[in-house]
């Protein structure tokens, strides 16, 4: 079967389905988002651009001091016994650099699809971050 012809048919089918859905319905909103982000799964560059945009915006948000503040813990230097005051010094808070924030955002964006690891005691099973969300790598405990 001709791959290009089947892609055109699928794209047309999805367009008709999107346009046939009632305006402001959940189905139409989802299909419109699917069309915008990935071209119904046929335009991979759109999905890549959308992922890159999410990483860039998230990285910028991590450097915005109004949304992401680092907390610092003071080290006690002296104690005044009369009023019971503890005097401590803390290093000045340092924010994330934009490069580190983008790196963190990129790592977290793909965190659930990291490579699998063998399950201890079960050499033929593997766990990914999806399966470790349950807190256990044993399928009996996933319920």
From TrEMBL:
Comp. bias regions, Polar residues: 126-137
Taxonomy, superkingdom: Bacteria
Transmembrane intervals: 44-62
Region (Disordered): 121-143
The protein's name: Uncharacterized protein
Species in which this protein is naturally found: Gordonia rhizosphera NBRC 16068
UniProt KW keywords: Membrane, Transmembrane, Transmembrane helix
